[in-house]
Amino acid sequence: VQLQASGGGMVQPGGSLRLSCAGSGRTFSNYVIGWFRQAPGKEREFVSSTTTSGDFTLYEDSVKGRFTVSRDNTKNTVYLQMNNLKAWETAMYYCAASAPNRYLSLRDHDRYVYWGQGTQVTVSS
Questions:
Q1: Which phi and psi (to 5°) does residue 114 adopt?
Q2: Strand 17-24 to strand 2-6: parallel, antiparallel, or no bridges (unpaired)?
Q3: What is the phi/psi pair of residue 63, to 5°?
Q4: Across the strands, what pairs with 14?
Q5: Per-residue pLDDT tens digits for 49-107
Q6: Eight-state DSSP code of residue 90
Q7: Who's near 86: CB < 8 A, 6+ residues apart?
Q8: Pick from 53, 108, 47, 105: which is nearest to 81 by CA?
């Protein structure tokens, strides 16, 4: 499956952005989708994920209550709504796809085989 992340940009602290991850090439609804971010000089970190049907979602602790992941399999798209953004959340944001596997953590970036190209989010006043 090919993934295309979009929706990044520059926003002031406290602002909002909605990222999109569009899939093509294979049955999008067969894949778990995760969001990760990587700031300059830092390791890639887990942000959120959603299972194939969207009935289960997971968030990194620091984004709980501010970020919401959702998916529309009719549009082959997963969304990440980000509210009350912080300056330290400036990073490249990536979406990634994984086959379902109950034995692997949704947080584990090694389980994700397909990655999008990333979209830059800059939070600055």
A1: -110, 130
A2: antiparallel
A3: -105, -5
A4: none
A5: 999 999 999 999 999 999 999 999 999 999 999 999 999 999 999 999 999 888 889 99
A6: -
A7: 13, 123
A8: 47
CA distance 91 to 110: 20
68-82 residue pLDDT tens: 999 999 999 999 999
Coil, helix or strand at residue 108: coil
Q: Which two tokens stand for residue 3?
A: 């993934």
Judged against a pLDDT cut of 80, whether residue 18 lies above it is answered with yes
State whether residue 37 is helix, strand or coil: strand
Residues whose CB is less than 8 angstroms from the CB of residue 12 and which lie 6 or more positions away in sequence, other chains included: 123, 124, 125
CA diameter of the chain: 42
Residue 66 Cα to chain centre, angstroms? 14
Tokens representing 91 are: 């990073």
Buried b (16+ CB within 10 A) or exposed e, 31-62: bbbbbbbeeeeeeeebbbbbebeeeeebbbee
Which positions ≥6 away from 123 have C-beta within 8 Å?
10, 11, 12, 13, 15, 85, 86, 87, 88, 89, 90
